[in-house]
Write a structure and sequence with these properties.
By secondary structure, the chain is α/β, with parallel strands linked by helices. The chain has 12 helices and 12 strands. Strand 2, helix 2 and strand 3 (58-61) form a beta-alpha-beta unit. Helix 9 packs antiparallel against helix 11 and helix 9 (241-258) runs parallel beside helix 12.
Length: 312
Amino acid sequence: MRKKVSVVVVSYNGERFLPHLLNSLKSQSYPLEEIILVDNASQDNSLQILKKYFPHVKVLKNSYNMLYGPAMNRGISLSRGDYLLCLNHDLYLDKYFVEYLLKAMDTHPRIGMACGKVLSWDGQYIDSCGQTLSLSRKPVDIGFGERDREKFDRKRYVWGPGGVAPLFKRVMLEEIKEGENYFDEELGIFYEDLDLAWRASRKGWRCIFEPKAIAYHFRGGATLGMNYPRYRRPLFLGLPYSLKERVVINRYYTLVKNEELINLFLYSPFIFSYDLKLWLVLFAESPWGSLKVLYKTWKSIKNAFRKRKIYG
């Protein structure tokens, strides 16, 4: 029986990228059940391009930018597939991408997530070969910024798929969802991919990395546009203050919600060292703003404990 694959794309002002992505989806070797694009109130010509050149794409128009997690939830809830390919708009896929990921997921019944080798837009660098957790409990894209070479060509289990182009089993998403939500809507954007993978891991689901599935990503294109120097400095430094604030708040929320309390203690020196750098950046940019972030972070931590108590 053929596996039904639904594609859900979240887009905001993606007119420069969408033709590349949608043409690559059209040419996939494995037939797709449907393509759903959730538009977060784009101000460019995205919708006109979709209507003219990609009429087969089902478009869900939001009246405001509800950010990645809530928008993705909306798309997933209206999809029909047994598998969900959840995409940013700033990438394109090799024609065998979906086919290879599906084959990889067939190797074990508890594989609920899969990711491929994501390269930079020009193919010169590794963008991500899945994610791992650092000692500071920060999600790290495996191989980020390195030249592609043989060590990245081994199929293996990884912590999580990251948020660029993961493939999920619907049965896994249904098992781990919180209420009606697959992605935690309190996160909005940043750390929502780690939170989902963490919840799946606690339920016994695994993620596999398939190096034959290739994608090309314009890192930062979905949040910072075309001009950000993606591989020359950390993405955090290039974010506007409002997004830096969200990164910090979401980090604590995700850790408190998912990490074992004993691990928070054991890894505390590494967590403190990394977080000190984040807070110094915030304080240097806006001392008063950093105090507001501190208050919002405390409220977020209380919400995380509440979620932890409800969903375990």
